[in-house]
Amino acid sequence: MNTATKLSGFALGLAVVFGATYGVGRVADPVSPPAEAAHDAGGGHGDDGGAGHEGDNGAAAHLPGGLLVSDRGYTLRPVDAPAGQFAFQVTGPDGRAVTAYDVAHDKRMHLIVARRDLSGFRHVHPEMAPDGTWRVDSPLAGPGVWRAFADFTPTGGEALTLGVDVTVPGALTGRPLPAPATSTTVDGYTVTLAGAPQPGRTAELTLSVSRGGAPVTDLEPYLGAYGHLVALRQGDLAYLHVHPHGEPGDGRTRPGPEVSFSAEMPSAGAYRLYLDFKHGGVVRTAEFTVVAGSPTAPGVPAATGTPTAGTPAATSSPTADAGHGVPGHGHD
Ligand SMILES: [Cu+2]
């Protein structure tokens, strides 16, 4: 496609200017060792904390975010809630519910959910009661085993992402992971991905938003950025959250159509990417399956018309609706 070269050049320029500060984790992984050492970010929202902390307790220091229900003394505990609500607490090293949180990206708590089959992604912001109980209209949109990620920074502590499984009873038809693609649609918007994620090193990923064939050049800030990118690893739902280069209002960051990220996948394998962006007052989520490293890694679905994920050639849109809780959408 015509814009591929231009997009690549754009991303490269950003990489030179901003460096690799936003890499998603300096995590050693069990599948394929990273080609280089540490970067400055972890699995959480914080730009300077997260999974890569070194020198304290053991194995957690080497894990991506979201894999643990309890880490560094903090534990994610769902609590009973009325029908239609989801509620939880985070208990701290003293065993009590944490009530003091730092604001990160406009919120003290980011709750991300996805089914274990990577469908049904939602990103919501609960409200905290004085006793430390967080409540939100349930984002668990239907039956299945869901992974709920709490992404937060306890005041005085480091950024953390804890994860817990939550089962919603009922009949479920599991969805195979949609095939890798570099273009998808959501609510009439087309989002195209340029760049190939890499295991163990930072890669530039540029997402470009258009509608009706016209580039969208008036994206709206959402939680302090023109886009938020979450990646979940197929197989264990390891969680990565990255923010784009530049911020709204910094005098150099344009409000679309491109939103560029530096992302580092913790291992080879398949990932589902979820881009939250805001336009016309509505936040939408565009989803892609991508493959870091070998496209023949176990569990990687066949590509639709492109030999490797991230190749900037348009493919069909397998899952434009999956972000809205519609499971079982066909592809191939
Ligand atoms: Cu959030």
Q: Kindly, what is the distance between the CA atoms of the first and last residues, rounded to a whole number of angstroms?
A: 22 Å
Query: Would you list the SSEs in sequence order as H and E?
Result: HEEEEEEEEEEEEEEEEEEE
Shape: globular
**What would you report as the Rg, rounded to the nearest angstrom?**
19 Å
Ligand roster: copper (II) ion
Main β-sheet description = 5 strands, antiparallel
Name the beta content range: 25-35%
Number of helical segments with 4 or more residues: 1
Record the strand order, biggest sheet. Answer: 1-2-3-8-7
DSSP, total strands: 19
Structural class: mainly beta
In helices, the fraction of residues equals: under 10%
Low-confidence residue ranges: 1-44, 46-58, 305-332
Mean residue pLDDT = 78
Can you tell me about this structure?
The protein is mainly beta and 332 residues long. The protein contains 1 helix and 19 strands. The chain has one helix at 4-18; strands at 70-71, 74-79, 85-91, 101-102, 109-115, 122-124, 127-128, 134-137, 144-154, 160-168, 183-186, 189-194, 202-211, 214-215, 228-233, 239-242, 258-264, 269-279, 282-292. A hairpin with a 6-residue loop joins strand 5 (109-115) and strand 6 (122-124). The protein starts with a helix and ends in a 40-residue tail after the last strand. It binds copper (II) ion (CU).
Write the layout of secondary structure elements.
Blueprint: H1 4-18, E1 70-71, E2 74-79, E3 85-91, E4 101-102, E5 109-115, E6 122-124, E7 127-128, E8 134-137, E9 144-154, E10 160-168, E11 183-186, E12 189-194, E13 202-211, E14 214-215, E15 228-233, E16 239-242, E17 258-264, E18 269-279, E19 282-292
Antiparallel strand pairs: 1-2, 2-3, 3-8, 4-9, 5-6, 5-9, 7-8, 9-10, 11-12, 12-13, 13-14, 13-17, 15-16, 15-18, 18-19
The structure holds copper (II) ion.
